[in-house]
Structures are given as C-alpha cells and as structure tokens.
Amino acid sequence: MAVSIASGTPCLGRFVVKDPGPTLVFLAEDAIGAVRARLEALCAQRRLDIDGLNLYAITASTVRLDLEADQQRLNATLSALRPRLLLLDPLVRLHRLDENSAADISKLLGFIREMQRTHDTAIALTHHASKKHRAQPGQALRGSSDLHAFGDSNAYLARRKQRIVLTLEHRCAKPPDPIEMELVSRPNGSATHLEIVTPLNADTTSLADRALVFLQHSSKPLTRTAIRNHLKVNNQRLGETLTELNRQGLVLQTPKGWVPLDNHHESATT
Fold first, then answer.
1. With contact defined as beta carbons under 8 Å apart, do 26 and 126 qualify?
2. Rounded to an integer, what distance in angstroms lies between the CA atom of residue 11 and that of residue 176?
3. What single string gives the DSSP state of each residue in 184-214?
4. What structural domains does the chain harbor?
5. What is the pTM of this model?
6. 103 — phi, psi (to 5°)?
7. Are 81 and 22 in contact, with CB atoms under 8 Å apart?
8. What Pfam families is this protein classified in (predicted)?
C-alpha cells in the first residue's frame, strides 16, 4: 500500500491510487536492510526505480508513541514530509503500555488520531490477532476492544491452505467480498509480492477504477473499442468515464489511443 501511494501504481495490481504522494513507514521488527530488500522486490515487480520512489523509512532503532520525546520527533517528521500515508508496523512494538488496559490504549490512540488530523495524513497500524476463533475478525484483535473501534477501515489477513484471505471492514461503506491472495515470485525467486487470485467483481469495483487499471497494465495506447471489449460495458457509459478520468488528469487521449498519465515524484531516501 505504501509503495502504491508513493508511486501511483495500483495496490495489489487492482486498487487505483487517485491521490498519490509521499509515504513514511516504520517497520519496527525489520532491520533497515530487510526493509530495503522488500521495497526493492516490490519496485522490481512494478518496474519502478527505487531511487525515485517517493517513500521514506524511519531508521531509528525504536519509536515509542507513549514517550513525549518520540511523539515530538514523529510530529516534526510529519510536518516536514507531509506524507499521504504513515505506516507503523506493528503496534505492539511502538509502546510499553498494557494493551489490555482501556485507559492506556485509549490515550495512545488519542495521540494517533490527533496526529492524523493535525497533519492531514492517513495512518495505517498493523496489529496482531489472538489465536482464538471469533465470529467477527475484529473481535480477535489482541488487547483492548478500543483497538477495533478505533479503525475507520480495518483489514484482516487469515491463511486458508496455500492462500491468504483479506477481509475488509469500513466504518462508513459497504465492504467488498473477501479477497484471496497468493505470495508469488518470478522464476528466479525475485520480485516477491502478493497477487490477487479472486476474480474481479464488477459490482464492487467502479468502472473508472477498472478502466484505469486496464490502461495502466497495457504496454501500448488502447482504443476506446479495445477498452469497451475488454470491460464489456456500454459505449456511452465508457465514454463518460474516460472523459471524467481525463478531466481528473489520470488519462490522456492520444492519436493512437488512450494512455494513463505517469506520476512524477521527487526523489526520496529509503
């Protein structure tokens, strides 16, 4: 997700990024070399130059969100970078509080919400689930129930045989059906990434998103007829969609056909 937002490429190859920009990540359980290796794999899969990726990684050995000094440093970093997304992974390594204490966790989440609103940035937290089975995935989150209630959107990962099932939950929108994914690599073992294996559901994905993903995956300009035949949609509706995407600066009509507009970003350290 962080690479998609930083590069403007579809997340998981399907979900279009409409407002790309810089991202900031802190992977508390990984050495910085491992973080770079993961980023290089994702960039290789998307044919991106990692040196031009608009993504920043926090290299500090620890970040404690319950300590005032670390709060101030993180706020200063967000003020300087103005990222679209801050990814913190995992939450359990970012504090020294009792995760079962509603009072402690509520105060911590209050600081995170304040950061999100002050800096107008999306914040993604990863958190572990218990091994006990629950009727709803959100009920399996470790610690205080405030963690489940806090999320505007929640994504749950569960292993099912050789696949990983992604279940989404939104506070203010109907979620799509669960999505099955596989961890795949090139024949030589490089460019390891998650790939969706669930068929695309036209009812839960907008025509604009489907058209943009199709264009972004094409190596050449596409005619309106080619797009219509692939998406199997009404010609007038497709025309209106392409016009709107063009108005938003996401696609361009050339003499040879429609093309997605590239997203150019300033270089960033990773």
1. no
2. 15
3. E--TTS-S-EEEE-SPP-TTTS-HHHHHHHH
4. 2-205 (3.40.50.300), 206-262 (1.10.10.10)
5. 0.73
6. -65, -45
7. yes
8. AAA_25
Residue 44 is which amino acid? A
For residues 266 and 138, what is the distance between their CA atoms, to the nearest angstrom?
38
Give 183's strand partners. 194
Note whether 138 and 169 are within 8 A (CB).
Answer: yes
Report how far Cα 100 is from the mean position of its chain's Cα atoms.
28
- pLDDT, one tens digit per residue, over 70-94 is 999 999 999 999 999 999 999 999 9
The pLDDT of residue 59: 96
Cβ atoms of residues 5 and 85 within 8 Å:
yes
Residue 31 has a CB neighbour count (10 Å cut-off) of 10
Bridge partners for 168 per DSSP: 155
CA distance 54 to 239: 33
In angstroms, the CA 229 to CA 223 distance is 10
Spatial separation of the C-alpha atoms in residues 117 and 114, rounded to whole Å: 5
